[in-house]
Specification:
With about 210 residues, the chain is of the alpha/beta class. It contains nine helices and nine strands. A five-stranded mixed sheet has the order 1-4-5-2-7. A two-stranded antiparallel ribbon has the order 3-6. Strands 8-9 form a two-stranded parallel sheet. Strand 4 and strand 5 form a beta hairpin. It is rod-shaped and about 80 Å long.
């Protein structure tokens, strides 16, 4: 019999497995495993002389829990399902998959910072220059760690093309010309709008003279 200690983080990585979890199993784990093997054998649930020999123990929500994996045993699943329901008040039995979904949930996805715009198109294509511009852009957006990581990756890669792809993972590569023209375009639109507003009253004032 092998009983190993695991963590809830280990459980989260068992989404492709199934087993029976019993909760509130205080005391000697070996005695619990022997007792459960005997009960399930007597009830005709464990078949062909198989028993649970690889069991895991973990702590969660203040309870000691045992995981009986289904990998190395022959089971009458229908009988086990009925046994689990009938003994739930005693053992708190639940399936591994249900326990992961209902008791552990999933680890929150790490928030990926939004990539800032970086005007590289139209700049001097020297890789040191491009990395410098991208690095300053990242730092100005409060991302110094990403700036260092990007530079380290760029200078350890083996081609110019790969270097550009790495930079593109950290910033949105935009045109330097577009960055320059954008404020001019806005000012021009405001200027044109004011000119139209100014011209309209003058035209209306001349109409009575006709």
């Amino acid at each position: 019999m092998e009983i190993q200690n695991i963590t809830v983080e280990d459980l989260r990585r068992m989404e492709d497995k199934e087993g029976l979890i019993l909760q509130g199993c205080g005391g000697e784990p070996g005695e619990w495993v022997k007792g459960i093997n005997d009960l399930l054998t007597q009830d005709g649930i464990l078949l062909e002389g198989t028993t649970f020999t690889h069991v895991s123990v973990f702590q969660n929500e203040g309870l000691t829990c045992l995981l009986f994996p289904f990998e190395d045993v022959k089971l009458d699943i229908g009988k086990l399902a009925m046994w689990r329901l009938q003994t739930h008040d005693t053992f708190g039995g639940t399936w591994l998959s249900d326990y992961i979904d209902n008791r552990l949930g999933h680890e929150p996805a790490q928030e990926v910072p939004e990539k800032p715009d970086c005007p590289l198109i139209g700049q001097d294509g020297n890789i040191f220059n491009l990395v410098g511009i991208a690095s300053r852009t990242l730092k100005s957006h409060g991302m110094p760690d990403q700036a260092k990581e990007m530079a380290d990756r760029v200078f350890s890669c083996d081609s110019y093309h790969k270097a550009l792809c790495i930079i593109g993972e950290y910033v949105n590569i935009t045109s330097a010309d577009r960055e320059v023209e954008r404020p001019h375009s806005i000012r021009q639109q405001l200027k044109n709008g004011k000119a139209t507003e100014t011209a309209a009253p003058k035209k209306a004032a001349k109409e009575p003279e006709r």
